[in-house]
């Protein structure tokens, strides 16, 4: 098959316009085009009155060699790359040890699924609850101000990504097409097939819940085991080699291979690993607030007269501004037609995040507006305390809790008041979506002064790109602190911890991913490395047993 790129059609093109457009572009008769499928569809909205759709299509023609020769080095017609996933090994028949995966976020689920598909029958441990029980606990905080520290937006089956927009795009380099494997597995589990070809695919929280359950069922059908309410207390380490995991209830599970996919909020796990001597280093992340605008404002600013078009859907944005104080302010995790959610995992702290359903039909758009922070900003010396970033996060999450009235309500401020440096006392046109509610105040006590300065400079700059972004009644809600992990559990080229053999740090929590797709891809890579290691171990031991 061949792949044709950069095929442009008008936004309002007829449903049957793609085939003749392909033939015209290739200069062939209709009868020479045997078949085609859409590999990717994106759009160019730079000219709002004439938005174009851009297609990449895979196709079959009668004489591929002649067509390729005629196009020469054009670059827009090439042989279709082989994107089919290939397993790196299969579990030996006499495998006596089972790998352990800690965490059931996208990284842990994909690692466990790939290991199960290769026959390694992983044991997957999750400190939180199954996804539907976890959803009830999460609503307990949103609706009743009742936090369950072990079952919330951060902890439980599906990971933090379950309560998000379900965004499935990433800018990672993926030469082996692992991202394609992630999407394929999601579709098998119930995701809409369009995620395979739209440029910015998303699923939404409600659909993610069912998908996660279906993936769990597949893993167990293949011999894997998933245990909920199973918190790992510490590792068993002998001579820098993992030998097992010790559960909070005292049980020890023997294993020489552990995938650590705990997410970016498993602070007690990071502390335990550090105390056991696993190498950890501090890393940068970002903090700030959530901002809410009417979704209609964003749609109009991005799409002009085409706002509301079904193909385009609810508009998103991606903004960045380099500030005079040397910081970068940028939008993060933009959720069109969504809501701001309470995302703390610790009592006495407020954390915000954003989520959308598949329809993206809520009245507000929201995104994190954050500013980069570096290990040098953390309290104490990050070189002697690599967990200092956690202390930094807790400081501002606690400040937000107090500023919100110490009830899990979030502190909030109208953008106009924020820019003017005065507290907010009432809402305007924009009704904030955060539950269990907001307390209007001055957000300057909730983040460091340099973050405030950077955002006061950035918001007017963003208004030049999206007209109305600095609207006085837009609402800022604090605080957004968990944009990425504050630590990295450093690993080598073999994906194992640099000083603890058999430990495979993976995903967002270990500092190697950011978002559902990249976490899933990292889970696959780690599973492959672990499987190859286990297969070689069995092979090396075989002669001794003969």
Describe the structure.
29% of the residues lie in helices and 23% in strands. It is of the alpha+beta class. Strands 13, 14, 15, 16, 17, 18, 19 and 20 form an eight-stranded mixed beta sheet that branches. A hairpin with a 5-residue loop joins strand 14 (320-322) and strand 15. Helix 3 (106-117) packs parallel to helix 6. 47% of the residues are buried.
Which terms would index this structure?
546 residues; alpha+beta; 5-stranded parallel beta sheet; 29% helix
Record the SSE blueprint.
Elements: E1 2-10, H1 18-26, E2 33-44, E3 52-61, H2 64-71, E4 77-79, E5 100-102, H3 106-117, E6 123-126, H4 131-144, H5 178-188, H6 205-221, E7 225-228, E8 232-238, E9 241-247, E10 252-254, E11 258-260, H7 267-275, E12 281-282, E13 285-294, H8 295-303, E14 320-322, E15 328-342, E16 352-355, E17 364-373, H9 388-403, E18 410-414, H10 415-420, E19 438-440, H11 449-465, E20 475-480, E21 487-488, E22 503-505, H12 516-545
Parallel strand pairs: 5-6, 5-11, 6-7, 11-22, 18-19
Antiparallel strand pairs: 1-3, 1-4, 2-3, 8-9, 9-10, 12-21, 13-17, 13-20, 14-15, 15-16, 15-17, 18-20
Helix pairs in contact: 3-6, 3-12, 5-12
CA-to-CA gap between the ends? 48 Å
Class based on secondary structure composition and strand pairing: alpha+beta
- State the major sheet: 8 strands, mixed
Give the fraction of residues assigned to helices. 25-40%
Coarse shape:
globular
- Beta fraction: 15-25%
List unreliable stretches of 5+ residues.
none
Radius of gyration: 25 Å
Q: What count of helical segments does DSSP give? A: 12
Instruction: Please give the number of β-strands.
Output: 22
**Average predicted local confidence, pLDDT:** 95
């Amino acid at each position: 098959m061949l792949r044709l790129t950069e095929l442009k059609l008008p936004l309002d093109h007829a449903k049957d316009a793609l085939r003749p457009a392909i033939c015209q572009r290739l200069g062939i008769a209709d009868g020479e085009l045997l078949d085609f499928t859409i590999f990717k569809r994106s759009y160019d909205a730079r000219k709002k009155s004439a938005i174009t759709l851009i297609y990449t299509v895979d196709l079959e023609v009668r004489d591929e060699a002649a067509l390729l020769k005629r196009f020469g080095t054009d670059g827009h017609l090439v042989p279709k790359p082989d994107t089919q996933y290939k397993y790196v090994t299969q579990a030996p028949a006499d495998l006596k040890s089972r790998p352990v995966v800690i965490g059931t976020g996208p990284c842990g689920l994909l690692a466990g699924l790939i290991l199960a598909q290769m026959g390694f029958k992983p044991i997957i441990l999750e400190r939180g609850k199954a996804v539907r029980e976890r959803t009830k606990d999460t609503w307990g905080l949103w609706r009743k101000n009742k936090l369950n520290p072990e079952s919330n937006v951060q902890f439980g089956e599906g990971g933090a990504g379950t309560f998000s927009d379900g965004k499935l795009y990433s800018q990672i380099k993926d030469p082996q097409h692992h991202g394609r494997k992630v999407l394929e597995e999601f579709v098998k589990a119930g995701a809409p097939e369009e995620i395979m070809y739209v440029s910015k695919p998303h699923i939404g929280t409600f659909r993610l819940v069912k998908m996660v359950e279906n993936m769990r069922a597949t893993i167990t059908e293949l011999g894997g085991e998933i245990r909920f309410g199973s918190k790992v207390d510490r590792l068993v380490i002998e001579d820098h080699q993992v030998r097992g995991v010790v559960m909070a209830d005292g049980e020890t599970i023997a294993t020489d291979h552990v995938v650590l996919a705990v997410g970016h909020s498993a602070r007690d796990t990071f502390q335990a690993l550090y105390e056991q001597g696993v190498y950890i280093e501090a890393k940068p992340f970002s903090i700030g607030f959530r901002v809410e605008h009417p979704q209609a404002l964003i749609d109009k600013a991005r799409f002009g007269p085409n706002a509301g078009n079904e193909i385009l859907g609810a508009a998103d944005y991606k903004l960045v501004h380099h500030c005079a104080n040397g910081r970068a302010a940028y939008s993060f995790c933009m959720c069109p037609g969504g809501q701001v959610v309470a995302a703390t995992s610790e009592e006495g702290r407020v954390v915000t995040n954003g989520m959308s359903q598949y329809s993206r039909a809520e009245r507000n758009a929201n995104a994190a507006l954050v500013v980069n922070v570096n290990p040098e900003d953390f309290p104490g010396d990050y070189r002697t305390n690599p967990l200092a970033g956690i202390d930094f996060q807790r400081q501002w999450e606690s400040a937000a809790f107090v500023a919100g009235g110490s009830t899990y309500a979030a502190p909030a401020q109208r953008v106009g008041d924020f820019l003017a440096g005065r507290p907010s006392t009432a809402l305007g046109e924009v009704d904030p979506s955060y539950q269990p509610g907001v307390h209007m105040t001055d957000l300057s006590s909730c983040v460091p002064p340099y973050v405030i300065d950077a955002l006061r400079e950035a918001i007017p700059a963003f208004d030049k790109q999206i007209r109305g972004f600095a609207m006085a009644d837009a609402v800022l809600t604090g605080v957004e602190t968990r944009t990425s992990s504050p630590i990295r559990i450093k690993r080598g080229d073999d994906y194992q911890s640099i000083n603890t053999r058999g430990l495979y740090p993976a995903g967002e929590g270990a500092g190697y991913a950011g978002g559902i797709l990249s976490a899933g891809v990292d889970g696959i890579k780690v599973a492959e490395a672990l499987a190859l290691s286990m297969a070689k171990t069995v092979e090396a031991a075989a002669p001794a047993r003969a």
